[in-house]
Amino acid sequence: xxxLYIYALIGALFFSSSQGIFASGxxxxxxxxxxxxxxxxxxxxNLGKAIYNAEVALDAKKEDLVKSQKNRxxxxxxxxxxxxxxxxxxxxxxxxxxxxxxxALEFFVSIRFNVxxxxxxx
Length: 122
Fold this sequence. Notes:
The protein is an all-alpha fold and 122 residues long. It has a domain at 36-117. The chain contains five helices and no strands. The termini are far apart. Residues 1-23 form the signal peptide.
């Protein structure tokens, strides 16, 4: 009788704790804002992610690109959530990115942080 009571108690604890795992209310899939990226989009996203996380060696600063890139990066920095604004400073990348790299960075931020970036007028 005592062992039956112990088994019932263990079973009740197991099932009550496992419900918390399965019924969290969140969506368990997708890590990229629920979107499945393919081919070129995935490459672009991964390049932007690597630049964002400072995992890519960048070119030397080119003074002729600083002004135009600073405007774009300033806008991008302002689009980040407050928790990220203190972690990264995208404006420091001004003049160091190719057009492909800055475009990839904008793409990554728009997907990762679910931000709708407006067309910028230089």
